[in-house]
Write a structure and sequence with these properties.
This protein has six helices and two strands. With 154 residues, the chain is mainly α. It has two domains: 59 residues; 74 residues, no CATH class. Strands 1-2 form a two-stranded antiparallel sheet. Strand 1 and strand 2 form a beta hairpin. Helix 1 packs antiparallel against helix 2, helix 4 crosses helix 6 and helix 5 crosses helix 6. The longest helix is centred in the middle third of the chain and has 31 residues. The radius of gyration is 24 Å and the shape is elongated. The two termini are 18 Å apart.
Amino acid sequence: MSTSRLRPRPGEAAALLTVLGLLVLEEIALGMAEEDERPVIGGILIGASGTGLLVVGAVLLTRWLDARRPLPLPPAGPDGPEYSARALEGFPMEAVRPLLLAENAPRLDRLYSAWMLARSGRPAPWIARRLDLPLDAAHLLVDAARSAELDQRP
């Protein structure tokens, strides 16, 4: 998975390609139309373009709502969210230790949450923004999760 979420999801790509195809067909239809048919075809094309804009707006709104949706975190224990030992397998504690000893250090439970999100394929900037972590810490965890994933492949 890439470190950026600029690429559209498959459903978004299909919707956007449909809108682009519709715009191309509109231009072809308007160019081939006779002079007296152009006002009617133009009105139809304006309606189709408006529909295309609504589709693009719906895709962008869906992305915005997904970014604002709260994260599903495990239930809180006495020291914050609790994760099983298996879920935290491969956590790079030695690499994270200097971050924990630094001034204004992130909490360990946030780093555990970031690790879980990195293991699920979330990009570092997204993790850093959502969990209020330093970007270098998020990159460290994403890189470690990626290398752990490569080590587990046969």
